[in-house]
Amino acid sequence: MPKFKPQYRRLLFIDRQIKEGRYPNCVSLGATWEVSGKTIQRDIDYLRDELDAPIGYDVLKRGYYYTEPSFSLPAIHVSESDLFSVCVAERVLSQYRNTPLFEKISLVFQKIRDSLPDKTNVDPAWLNERILMFPEPATRLNPAIWDTLAKAIRDNRRICLTHASPRKKGEGVAERTVDPYYLVSYRGEWYLSSFCHHRQSIRTFGVSRIAKATILDDTFSMPADMTAQRMFGDQFGIVWKDTFHKVRIQFSPAVAPYIRERQWHPTQRVHERRDGGVVLEFTTNHVNEVKDWVLSWGGGATVLAPSQLVEKVKEGIKQAAANYKT
What we know:
The chain is of the alpha+beta class and 326 residues long. It has helices spanning 8-19, 26-33, 37-49, 80-92, 101-115, 127-130, 143-155, 228-232, 256-260, 288-295, 307-322; strands at 55-58, 63-66, 157-164, 173-186, 189-196, 201-206, 210-219, 245-251, 269-272, 278-284, 301-305. The strands form three sheets. The protein has a five-stranded antiparallel sheet with strand order 6-5-4-3-7, with helices on one face. It has a four-stranded antiparallel sheet with strand order 9-10-8-11.
């Protein structure tokens, strides 16, 4: 295995800069690609040691050049299936059209396309008509808010935010000081999972409902036990609590095939019934989102446990039925 495995598109860029006589160096290349000078130096070493590139350094011009101007990088092989995978992945990107990620990741895909060898001739145009993606309805995010949250998470900086509760719109927005732990995408919304100093507990804020976010001077240390696996690996949704519930839901024979064919929860167990139905079991620490999911199956799902979830589903059915009284 080669000592270094830098990204091929960056190597192509470095090669092009050298061939055009721009005399690039580690500082200028690092700034362009937003990587460290050491990363660029590893790229240069890879070009010289693994690809036999005749690279020299001009002290006066402070940059690299080819001692043999006729040098060309060896071609890489990209199969049709490789290119197909890249094209499909780009289509999946449409799910993030309303987020600040869309434009940035689109540029990455453009760099990938630009880096492909000229001999790669696979026309992906048919993907537009024959492979379709129907993304979930997504909330619109304020790019400035997004960037502030991302920087605060990167630097472990405390933030002050104002957040509007969807259930208390008449009461305005609440100001909170929080330690931001994770940004999580879930069913068309981005959420900030954080430690709220007002509540002295973990709280989850919808990013689209954050009206203002300011990075404070204070820093925080990420608790060692607040790993992504612990906070998001064992629950049905993204709201975190410190208590857990064992859920048991019975599905009718008509619905059972749809339950069998999917992984609904990491801890799930599916038990077959003699009538062709199934009982789904899993452990979660928040039942509100489970309640909404159960109601989506209509009469095909019956909650067996816990009692808290049974009561929530009963209340949801009661409220829905009240909407249709004549």
